[in-house]
Amino acid sequence: MTETKRVALVTGGGAGIGAATCERLAHTGHAVGVLGQRLANAEDVAGRIRAAGGRALAVQADVSDRAALARAIDTLREAFGPVTILVNNAGVEEFTPFAEITEAAWDRVMEVNLKGIYHAVQLVLPDMIAAGWGRIVNLTALGAQIGAANMVHYTASKGAVTAMTRSLAVELGSKGITVNAVAPGFILTPMAQRAIDGNLFPVPWQDIVATYPVPRVGEPDEAAAAIAFFASEDAGYITAQVLGVNGGCAP
To answer: Which domains does the chain have, with CATH numbers?
Structure first.
């Protein structure tokens, strides 16, 4: 099926899976809004896309700040038009024993990982409804499926993203909008590298990877490939699904 050129917004697009997704979507022909909390990182990704002949615009916002996110989306619309592909990739994680999680830390994880998706979907939904076509791809996590020590607030937020994905899919399917989720396992992103460098896993990370049927760490582009498929024309009859990109680590 020929891919129609559309406008995509990727939150957390300045690094890792988000950056790889921006580049994949641009390569497909879509105009991409690279949204990041750090504008310099988003500019780097957008610059690479433009240098390769694609269309991209860096925009800045914390997804938990609805007003800032709305301004960023308006800037993207002014540059390229209505947004009909949304990839909710922005997220924060923290390794803390449950008994030591502060209320402020709990709230911050929920504000970004869950409420940020609520903001983004509501803000672009009018564009998708008007077009009679939309693709929403949310990032959940393997830890939300199998549990993860010292990450209760993170995994709780990502479990809620899965539930939100399925309910949105039910509500929006008749409007031509699909909603799916990708659940990455151990992907070598800057976030994962910080955890490796800080020795934050309860057991050596090499021991975790050794248990996988594909016994290695994944690459951001491998997760981006799954995201790009869900965002494609070919995925029009696929919705409410969660696809694990995890080397075969069964949930």
So the answer is: 7-187+220-244 (3.40.50.720)
